Each structure stands twice: as C-alpha cells, then as structure tokens.
Amino acid sequence: MEPVLIVLVVLVVVAFIALIKTIQVIPQASAAIVERFGRYTRTLNAGLNIVVPFIDRVRNRIDLREQVVPFPPQPVITQDNLVVNIDTVIYYQVTDPRAATYEVASYIQAIEQLTVTTLRNIIGSMDLESTLTSREVINAGLRGVLDEATGKWGIRVNRVELKAIEPPTSIQDSMEKQMRADRDKRAAILTAEGQRQAQILKAEGEKQADVLRAEGEAQAAVLRADGEAAAIRTVFEAIHDGDADQKLLAYQYLQTLPELAKGDSNKLWIIPSEVGDALKGLGGAFTGLTGNGGGANGGAIAAPSVPQAAPAAPAATQVPLDPAAGPRPVDVEKGAARPRVDPAREYRKIDPE
Q1: What distance in Å separates the CA atoms of residue 33 and residue 68, rounded to the nearest whole number?
Q2: Within 81-168, where are the H helices?
Q3: What is the largest CA-CA distance in the chain?
Q4: Prediction pTM value
Q5: What is the rounded distance in angstroms from the CA atom of residue 69 to the CA atom of residue 332?
Q6: According to the model, what pLDDT value does residue 285 have?
Q7: H helix count then E strand count, the chain
C-alpha cells in the first residue's frame, strides 16, 4: 500500500510541475524567446501562452519599452589636439526580440562601443569651440550612425544626448578668463553708452530749458513794454483830456521833490536845472492867486520871474513836506492853481531862490 501511495504522490508533483511549465504568462510590453531542443521556435507575446513542458524552453524575457542607458565619460581628442571628456546618454528600444537575442551577444555593450568609436570620429574632425557649440550636430551624427548599425540587431536608437563636455582644466581657466574679459568689455561699453546717453539727454534738457527761459523772458519783456506803453498812453490821454497847463505841471513837478530826499543814505541832494523853470511857473500861479484876494492879510505875493539872491522873499508859500500825504488836490479856476491849505498841518517855507 505504501509504494502505491508514493507513486501517486510523485505523479501529482510531476503533473503540477508540468502544468506550471505549460502555462506561461508574459507581462505587457515584454516578449519571450522559446527554444525547442535548443533551436528557436517562436516568440511569446504579452498574455497567456501554452508551451510543451520539458520540450520547449523559455530562454529569456526581453523588455520592449524604451530604455535609457548612460555611458561613462569617454576621452576624445579634438582636431586641435585637445582631450575632452564626453558623457553620452542613449535612448533605444528593442523592436525585434529574436534579432536582439541571436544577432548580437550583448547589445548594450555593442551600443556602448559603437557610440565611443562614432563619437571619436565626429569629434576628431571638429575643433574645441565647434565641439562646445555644436551639440545638435554631434547628436544627429551619432543617432544616424547608431540607428543604421543597430537596425540589424533589432534595436532602434531614438535619441542620443551629450550629457557633458569637459575640456582640460587649463582650457577651462583660459575660457573663464576670456568670458570674464568679454563680460567686462560689454559692461564697460554699456556703462559708456549709458553715460553718453545721460549726457546727451542732460544737454538736450538744458538746451530746452534755456530756450524756454529765453522765450519766457522775451514774452515778459514784451508784456512789460506793452504795459509801460499802455500806462504812458493812459497818462498822456489823461493829461490831454484834462488840458493841464504849464502851471499845474510845475506844481506837480514840485510835489515830487520830497521823494528825492527819501532814504537815510542820502547825504547829497542834487536839484536838476529844471527846478528853476518849475519855480517860475509856480510863482506865476501864486501871483494869480493873490491877485484874486486869496493871499494872507490881503497883500500880494509876488513870485520873481527868475531866482534872485535876496535877504528874504516878499512872501513865502507853505507846502507840506510829508511824503506820505501825497499830492494835494488843486482847484483850477480861471487858469490859476489854488492849493488847499490844511490849518492843522505844519508847513515849511520854501524860498523860490
């Protein structure tokens, strides 16, 4: 009874193992290579697949997604005999699992070596400056060569990127000095242009200010002249309309004499020569007034026709010397000027001579 039980247990285990080997589940975006007695039979796609147990063997599973492989820095010599280290990154995708399995032993290593050789060929025909500024050209050249070479391996190279380009340390120092000098040069040029523009704007502003100031002064002078002309015209018309005679003008001229003596710094008072003529007219005016009975004590106040040196004048005419009082009103009657005398005000005697 025991040997039979052992045989049954062994059969169950073998059946279970056979069932496991018969059912193959392949994940999405993956593929598997099936070999029968060591020979390629078929490729298993994603999903549930049935194989013959103990006869078919699944060799390896291949990821069909796009892969990213970074390669370590590779020393490359440029056309001007400078050694630069270049890091590359390859983006590839397996399109044919059978070719990727049987056409090349290790497609990752093959892609790396092909990338290094192609990169040296491309960089060897370029100088350092072109290498640093022509990444797109290098990427396109690498991609074209790799895609053509890896096509028969069942691999498509989608993109190639230069991760870093590191020139020698001495070259880096020289490049930094050159870039610093260029930046200093551009900064000096920009500063000079800014100062020049500022000076130009300042000069233009001063010019416009001077022009506006001159125009304002000119307009002010014109307006001032027009105002003075209008004032003179008004005074002239007023005198003309009032029909003032020589006696009234002489009296008004005499009213301005106290203004000449204003100020604490006046030490010398210069009387113009026209004062004599004014006194003549004023004397004639007072003569006419006394002839009409307006003099004091009924006597006649005689004004000499010309100034004479005499001990005393026959009669003195009193006029106020208060400048703040202003000109006194004058009554004009029959061609003679009659001043209005204020009894409460003190008058100073004025000698016609």
Answers
A1: 23
A2: 97-102, 107-124, 128-133, 135-150
A3: 192
A4: 0.48
A5: 125
A6: 52
A7: 9, 12
